[in-house]
Amino acid sequence: MSIPAFGVGTFRLQGQVVIDSVRNALDVGYRAIDTAQIYENEAEVGQAIAESGVAREDLFVTTKIWVPNYAQDKLVPSLKDSLAKLRTDYVDLTLIHWPAPGNGVTVAEFMTALAEAKAQGLTRQIGISNFPIAETRAAIAAVGRDAIATNQIELSPYLQNAALTAFLKEQGIPVTSYMTLAYGKVLKDPVIGLIAGRHDATPAQVALAWALQLGYAVIPSSTQRENLASNLLARDLRLTADDMAAIAALERNGREVSPEGLAAAWD
Fold first, then answer.
1. The whole model's pTM is what?
2. What is the distance in angstroms between the CA of the first residue and the CA of the last residue of the chain?
3. 39 belongs to the catalytic site
4. Are the C-beta atoms of residues 122 and 93 closer than 8 Å to each other?
5. Under CATH, which number does the domain 8-186+216-233 receive?
6. Region 15-38 average pLDDT
């Protein structure tokens, strides 16, 4: 995988809250940070990075282009604005945030513009987010599958996206799982709880370890330093085949995020 397996997310975190979260994450050992234009926190993330003392070359920073900036003449300027807010000359990964099929900009146009951003050195890698199979095929047709570093999609024990993840594996496109804890719902699941008890682990560690063992990258967020540190320990947790089978049985198509007008038809 050409992207880090474990990072910290910043969705829904703003102001001092996101500054503290990123600062604490870097302090306890995270080196990958995920943000987006629509999160409206790139400046605060940039501040936290600048004040952390961690060298830029030791970090992996991801941002995502928001829908109004998809057009050929808008994408690169918008990414330059993001870089200014993040206080960096480049990001490591830039994603198209949603397919937004009704936006009037084709997949070919925005993927070509994203490839141009990479050619200009504004981003080291490019990729997609929330793309089902049809739109992923269109992205591959535009830039080639080897150019797509990841598809960042909602995945949790309650939403396992079997058809899409199988397609991405077939294409050799790495998966990044977001909402892996389903807004905290899986933390209260009795099956997850039993597995956690057997391993002397937390439910969050179990859910994250499940995703990691399936080969997915994860980007959980937290405002609590102790939870940030605890989540990292999922990297050392090895679930048994029985554990993985029990979690696989939790599938319920429990999608948490599907904004009207932005999402394409799900597989």
1. 0.97
2. 24
3. yes
4. no
5. 3.20.20.100
6. 98
